Amino acid sequence: MTPDLARIPRWTLALVAGLAAALAHPPFGVLPGLLGYALLLWLVDTADAGKPLRSAFWRGWLAGVAYFGLGTWWVAEAFMVDAVHQGWMAPFAVALMAGGIALFWGLACLLYRWAAVAGVARFLVFAGIFAACEWLRGHVLTGFPWNLPGETWKAGSAMSQTAALVGAYGLTWVTLAIAASAAVWRDGRAGRIAVGVAAATLVGLTGWGALRLARPAPDTPNALRLRIVQADIKQSAKYDPAEFRRIVDRYVALTSRPYPGGRAADLVVWPEGAIPDAIDNYLAPDTWTRAAIEGALKPGQTLLVGAYRVEGTQADYRFYNSLVAVRRTGEGLEPAGVYDKFRLVPFGEFLPLDGLMEILGVKTLVHVGDGFTPGPPPRPLRPAGLPAFQPLICYEGLYPGYTRAGAKASGIRPDFIVNVSNDAWFGVTSGPLQHLNLSSYRAIEEGVPIVRATPTGVSTIIDARGVSDPRALRLGETGVIDAALPSERFNTPYRRLGDLPFLVMVLISGLLAPLKRVARHLNSLHNRNYGQSEAKSAFHRSGPHDDHNRN
C-alpha cells in the first residue's frame, strides 16, 4: 500500500472495500471492484496489533455493511407499497438487514486473523474461510444467499460457466482466491508468482467458458411451445379489491392472443401472485374467473398460475404460496398439479419471533394473516402431457443445489425449471435485475433451461448456459414471450457431485493454515538451534586463544 493510502482511516477503507465488491455485481458490472477483496485482506492482515481479533471483525463487518447496503437497498421499496403506514420502517429495515448479514463477513475476517497465517498462501486461507462463511450465510436460519461473491460474474458470461463445474459456492472460492491474490503482490518473487497463477487461472476458466458458449445449440423442431405472460401489475394494485377484475382480465387477454404459426402453446406461465387472492375460491365451478381462464385456454394447454392456497378449518387455517397447474380439456379445466413453496422468506412470508414482530408493527407486512406454511421439500412436477420440471418460487431461485435435491429425493431429473417470482415488490430498482442474474445460475449449475415469469419484469427464458433470451420482457413492460423451450441439456459435474468440489477447496484452504503454523514453528526451532550451534562454535573457536592469552 502507498503511504497516502496507509494514512486513510481503516474504517473508511473497509467501507470502500465492501462498496467496490458490491459494484462488481450486475447490474453495475464494475469488475475491477473485485479488488475490494484484496483490500479487505490487507486490512485484516494489518489489524491493530493490540486487539487484532476485534479489529479484524469490525473491519470485515464494516465491509459487509457497505456490500449488503448497496446490494439490498431495494428492500426499502417493499415498504413503499404502503408508504403511509410502513414507509417509516424502510431505512431501519435496510440497516438491520445489511448489519445482520454483515456479521458473516465479520466472522470470516475474525477467523482468518485468528488463524494467524503468514506467507504468500494466506490469500488461499482467506478465500477458504470467507467462502465457508458465505456457505453458512446461505444456510443459517433458512439462509439468505443473495449476491454470493461467485455470482459476481454476469450469468451467461464466460466466467460464469465455471458454476457448471463447481457450483456458485465453488465459484465463490475461486473468485475470492483470484481477487484476493492481489494482496500478496508485494511479497517478493513468491507473491508475484501467486498473482501470475491466479491471473492464469482466470484466463483459463474464461477461455473454457468462452468455448462452451461458442458451441452452437441443437435445434429441435418438436420442442415444448411456451407462452410467458407479463401483465405489469404493480404490487399496490393487488390490495385494492376494485382492481381484482382488471388484473384477471389483463392476464386472460394476454393469454388469449393468437400464437405465432397458428398453433397453441403447450404451456402458459403466469407469475407468482398473479391471482392476488386464495385461488381455491376462483377456480371453483360456476365462478366468472374459472370461466374466463377456461375461455383463454385451448384444449390440451396447461396453465401454471401463482397464487396462494388455503387449507384447514377456520380454527386452524394454513396458507401456502403455491404454483398451481390446470389443464384445459374438452370437458373444461382440470387440476394438473400443485407445488407449495418450501423455502419461505423470513420477515416477508413468515415471522420469526411472531409476537415481538406484531408489537413492533412488522407483522403488517404479511398480508395473509399469520404468514405462510412451508410446503414439502422440493420435488419436480409432471403434469399430464408435459415433461417433468422443478418449480422455484421467487426466493427459492437463490439456492444452489435446490433442484438437485428435488431430483435426488424423487429419482426424477427435471427437464427444465420454472421460476415464478413477484418482483413487483421491489419496483424499478436493481433488485429484480440482481434476482434475474442469481436465478440464472441455477440453469448453469443444473444444465437445464429456466422459464421465468414475473408480474413487472424481468420475464424471460434462460438456456442451460445461463444466457437470457433477447426477447425478455424488461421492467415495466407488458406482453408475452412466445418461444420453444431450449433443447440443450448438460449433465454437469455440479449436478453429479453437488458441493463436494467446494468442500475439497475449503479443506485445502483449512489445511494450509495449520501447515503454515507448523512451518513457522519448525523455522523458529531451526533458527533457535542454529543460533545455539553458532554460539557453541564461537566458544570453541575462541576458547584456546583465550587460554593462551590468560597464560
Q: What does this protein structure show overall?
A:
This protein is α/β, with parallel strands linked by helices and 551 residues long. The protein is 47% helix and 12% strand. It is built from 18 helices and ten strands.
Number of helices, where a helix is a run of at least 4 consecutive DSSP H or I residues: 18
**Major sheet attributes:** 6 strands, mixed
In terms of per-residue confidence, which ranges show pLDDT below 50 for 5 or more consecutive residues?
543-551
CATH architecture of the largest domain: 4-Layer Sandwich
Rg computed from alpha carbons, rounded to a whole number of angstroms:
28 Å
Strand content: 5-15%
Pattern of helices and strands: HHHHHHHHHHEHEHHEEEHEHEHEEEHH
Determine the mean pLDDT: 89
As laid out across the biggest beta sheet, the strand order is 5-4-3-2-1-10
Instruction: Look at the helices and sheets and give the structural class.
Output: alpha/beta
CATH H level, superfamily name of the largest domain: Carbon-nitrogen hydrolase
CATH topology of the largest domain: Nitrilase/N-carbamoyl-D-aminoacid amidohydrolase
What is the level 1 CATH name of the largest domain?
A: Alpha Beta
* Coarse shape: globular
Spatial gap, N to C terminus: 60 Å
- In total, how many domains does the architecture comprise? 2
Helix content: 40-55%
Number of strands: 10
